[in-house]
Amino acid sequence: MVVRWVCASFVLLLLVGFMLNAAEFVNGGITSSYARKNDISADMPLDSDVFQVPPGYNAPQQVHITQGDHEGKAVIVSWVTPDEPGSNTVLYWTDNSKQKSSANGIVLTYKYFNYTSGYIHHCTIENLEVSQSYNGCWNWEYHKTILVYSPPRAGPDVPYTFGLIAGDLGQTYDSNRTLTHYELNPTKGQTLLFVGDLSYSDDYPFHDNNRWDTWGRFIERSAAYQPWIWTAGNHEIDFAPDIGEAKPFKPYTSRFHVPYRASESTSPLWYSIKRASAYIIVLSSYSAYGKYTPQYKWFEYELPKVNRTETPWLIVLMHSPLYNSYVHHYMEGETMRVMYEPWFVEYKVDVIFAGHVHAYERSERVSNIAYNITNGLCDPISDQSAPVYITIGDGGNQEGLATNMTDPQPSYSAYREASFGHGIFDIKNRTHAYFGWHRNQDGYAVEADSAWLYNRYWDPSEESSIASF
Ligand SMILES: *[C@@H]1O[C@H](CO)[C@@H](O)[C@H](O)[C@H]1NC(C)=O
Ligand SMILES: *[C@@H]1O[C@H](CO)[C@@H](O)[C@H](O)[C@H]1NC(C)=O
Ligand SMILES: *[C@@H]1O[C@H](CO)[C@@H](O)[C@H](O)[C@H]1NC(C)=O
Ligand SMILES: *[C@@H]1O[C@H](CO)[C@@H](O)[C@H](O)[C@H]1NC(C)=O
Ligand SMILES: *[C@@H]1O[C@H](CO)[C@@H](O)[C@H](O)[C@H]1NC(C)=O
Ligand SMILES: *[C@@H]1O[C@H](CO)[C@@H](O)[C@H](O)[C@H]1NC(C)=O
Ligand SMILES: [Fe+2]
């Protein structure tokens, strides 16, 4: 085979300069007056520029990377070859040393109804040196994409910027706007936390899995260059026994590999990673989470393991929000809230990001864990040990926005707005993080909502005066 290197160089800025306006904490209870035209978002047609198949026989496509271990020194590189398996090898080298190392991965295919996938490759590159910038390449003809990856430094005061294009992205013109706004935001996200509902291919007849491929090509422009941390949503279930597809999560778990074994999980649907100064726990809203279930047993031992001296910031990702004051999906997260909220408060989780509701909402720090069937104590109360709940299900999918809100706005709800957008969770040091939410209709730097978050372990000071409960 003729080996041709077509490589360009990109530079990943490890530490970005933070240019932020002074922000004030928004007191409880804002329903934004911003009225977005509520047109249903149309999916981009198959011949759109963002879906273009790279030219050349068997050219790799749908390249995406995610963290490959628990500590943050490994990366999983995934890609699809359409015509034949091709090589499983990734070659990589640092800027300083031109000597190339190689890592071998695996290749798999799957069938779904009458669809057969391309050759899906997953290759884990381990033991990368922190803060070193790596370039990677594939030894095929026609290859275009260069992996550029820098494992983050670890440490309690390491600043780190997470993006949140959350969930419910889909592949509409609005999805493309959301991704573009994330890319052009002057505060550069270094890793994207994705809270479920990826391609929406299950909205097509027979769950047309070709829409998984178009989605993979659409996100490559970001996901090949920074890790996207995956959470499963309801659109990943792809459970359709009527057409003979009774194995839940088959396309999702075939296409998106995560380092679940590194956190002693038995399922890719729930796992944890450490990244810079954060500890991130991913939960599955659509797997059993009741007492004695595998997810419960894993999670029970997970929270006590978190060492807040090492990773002060404790972030949980899930798809279905636990606090949601929209009519759409109202109370769908209630059973998981009943199971896990006491732990979230006990272990002082800083923030919980969810999607599912196609809108944005940020909560006050509240808990609702006193109820015991007979005592009647079933209202949320202000609780500075509780997480802030942020719903960011406003990526832009073809199902449109959730605009109908419960009225009046409950006092636990600090800010809500039905617009598409993205978020930035910007960790400054062990005590301070700054969250900004950006709606797609504004300029790239504009924040429609923002809040400082004080770390619940290191700085338990009150963030806000919460309205009376
Ligand atoms: C799969 O089945 C659908 C519905 O019958 C049909 O429209 C489509 O062309 C089929 N695709 C393949 C690859 O056979
Ligand atoms: C998607 O967004 C990118 C970047 O803004 C743009 O170049 C491209 O033309 C857009 N494609 C569609 C189909 O909207
Ligand atoms: C927590 O991490 C710190 C810093 O790495 C370390 O000194 C300490 O021993 C750890 N605590 C436990 C209980 O492992
Ligand atoms: C429920 O809560 C009430 C009031 O806090 C308490 O008196 C009662 O013993 C509790 N019941 C149970 C079963 O724990
Ligand atoms: C909004 O939700 C309420 C409560 O479920 C319902 O009665 C009402 O019809 C909904 N309005 C719209 C416009 O969907
Ligand atoms: C942590 O960051 C905040 C916000 O940038 C800053 O005000 C504070 O002084 C920092 N704390 C330390 C110990 O550097
Ligand atoms: Fe959803």
From TrEMBL:
It comes from the Eukaryota. Residues 60-134 form the Purple acid phosphatase N-terminal domain. It holds the Pfam family Pur_ac_phosph_N. Its EC number is 3.1.3.2. Residues 386-445 form the Purple acid phosphatase C-terminal domain. GO terms for molecular function: acid phosphatase activity; metal ion binding. Residues 1-23 form the signal peptide. Belongs to the metallophosphoesterase superfamily. Purple acid phosphatase family. This is Purple acid phosphatase. The lineage of its organism: Eukaryota, Viridiplantae, Streptophyta, Embryophyta, Tracheophyta.
